[in-house]
Amino acid sequence: MVVRVWFVQDYKKKKLSFSIELVLMDRKGDRIGAFIRRTLIYKFKEQLQEGMVFTISSFDFACNSGLYKPSHNE
Questions:
Q1: 37, HSE (Cβ side, Cα atoms, 13 Å)
Q2: Where does the Replication protein A 70 kDa DNA-binding subunit B/D first OB fold domain lie (predicted)?
Q3: Domain extents in the chain
Q4: Could you tell me the pTM of the whole model?
Q5: Nearest to 41 by CA among 13, 1, 70
Q6: How far does CA 59 lie from the centroid of its chain?
Q7: Which among 43, 41, 2, 34 is positioned nearest to 18, based on CA atoms?
């Protein structure tokens, strides 16, 4: 389920979004942060709404080593 969705503004090109950021939750209640890069925003921006349930396939994952983490997980 999509718990939270927001657009990250591109500060250099004010009219463009840099990415879509998401917090996703599985059926056990575990949450994870995700993002959709700029080149794929057009495919998903009309479909993603908070509270909606989706099956996600063909995705990549990586460890978030940055300081900002939208969810608490290991």
A1: 4
A2: 1-73
A3: 2-44
A4: 0.72
A5: 13
A6: 12
A7: 41
